[in-house]
Write a structure and sequence with these properties.
Blueprint lengths: L33 E3 H5 L14 E5 L2 E6 L11 H16 L7 E5 H7 L6 H16 L1 E4 L10 E4 L1 E9 L5 E8 L1 H8 L3 E3 L10 H14 L6 E4 H8 L5 H18 L5 E6 L4 E6 L17 H10 L5 H14 L8 H15 L4
Antiparallel strand pairs: 1-9, 2-3, 3-5, 4-8, 5-6, 7-8, 10-12, 11-12
Length: 352
């Protein structure tokens, strides 16, 4: 579907390929799928849909980031899924008091399912390409991670080892060694939660916009506005101002119709040439059947008792996403529904 497609009532989101799957078990610092703050602030990953072979440099005050492509081009926003998965697993282990290391071993199938990717041969082939781009992309920066400023040149992952491979050539178990930079962010817990619907955003630009909103708005947070030029630079887009404005209008028009953008409403104001991200959590008027349910503090406390060890705010985000995916039906008692959701999650995947 092209960017210029006329809105036809269909959701812009990718379908949920694995609707019964619980994605991550994390219980602190916003929990659920997690991304490091530094690459959410700076345009480390390419949003191009074609191999991006151009070296880029971004500056913000005294901080700079220079990103150089490997043989297959720059690592993309979709390649970032690998890091999100690894970061989430390590944070979950830290939260349970378990020792962690820079080497993460996992089943390729679990990553594909967790990030809403296909599990056919093409899915494994794309994952192999992601590993190569993540290892090949070189970053030079003085960004602080873990409270220390150093000039570093590194790849996002140091190496990848396929531990087992099926007879059909599909990887089964994989070992990834994360860079010191990424691992430092994990140890310092410089990470933020991503709504699991992030993996259903179809367009690379949408994913990058969500990362920016999540980093700058917080959750539930306050509205944040960017002028178009600033946003273009933060996205790392190579588009002209005219083309970027068209892409933004398409996304904001779709969000106005479908409210598909996770956690935040995204709007564009023509007169000021500005984009605003507004947290969707707000008061619900009585009788407003289409409004998002609001969980009271009492409901959150009951949810904590129902799901010991889980981050209640991450569960609330998952609950709201589930409610939206189920057709946004009005709830007689939002707190009771939320507590039931927490009980079901804890029963399926208890933390201890």
């Amino acid at each position: 579907m092209g960017e210029s497609t006329i809105l036809d009532g269909r959701s812009p989101l990718l379908r949920d390929r694995h609707p019964q799957q619980d994605f991550f078990v994390c219980d602190v610092f916003d929990a659920a799928p997690k991304g490091d703050m530094a690459s959410m602030e700076h345009p480390i990953f390419s949003i191009s849909t074609k191999p991006d072979m151009k070296t880029r440099e971004y500056r913000n005050g005294s901080t700079f980031v220079r990103v150089s492509p490997g043989e297959l081009g720059l690592a993309t926003v979709h390649d970032r899924d690998v890091l999100i998965y690894c970061i989430s697993q390590l944070i979950a282990a830290l939260n349970e008091g378990k020792p962690v290391s820079q080497v993460v071993r996992f089943k390729a199938f679990d990553l594909l399912v967790a990030t809403n990717r296909g599990t056919d041969g093409r899915g494994y082939e794309q994952l192999r390409g992601a590993f190569k781009r993540l290892q090949g992309t070189q970053i030079e920066t003085n960004i602080l991670t873990g409270g220390t400023e150093e000039l570093e040149i590194f790849s996002l992952i140091d190496r990848v080892k396929i531990v087992r491979e099926s007879r059909e050539g599909r990887m089964q178990e994989v070992e990834v060694r994360l860079s010191d930079w990424v691992f430092g962010a994990i140890q310092a817990k410089e990470v933020l939660t991503l709504n699991r619907r992030y993996f259903r955003l179809r367009k690379p630009l949408e994913r990058r916009l969500y990362e920016i909103a999540r980093k700058h708005c917080g959750w539930p947070g306050k509205p944040v506005t960017f002028d178009l030029g600033t946003l273009l630079n933060k996205c790392g887009s190579k588009s002209t101002d005219f083309e970027f404005r068209r892409l933004i209008r398409t996304i904001t028009d779709q969000d106005r119709q479908h409210s598909h953008f996770p956690d935040y409403a995204v709007t564009y104001e023509d007169e000021k040439d500005q984009v605003t991200f507004t947290p969707r959590r707000k008061a619900v008027k009585s009788g407003d059947e289409g409004a998002r349910p609001v969980i009271s503090q009492k409901g959150r406390e009951a949810g904590k008792r129902a799901a010991p060890g889980y981050d209640i705010y991450a569960l609330e985000c998952d609950f709201l996403a589930y409610w939206s995916d189920q057709g946004r039906k009005p709830l007689r008692n939002a707190d009771a529904a939320f507590v039931g959701f927490c009980k079901a999650r804890a029963k399926r995947q208890p933390l201890h």
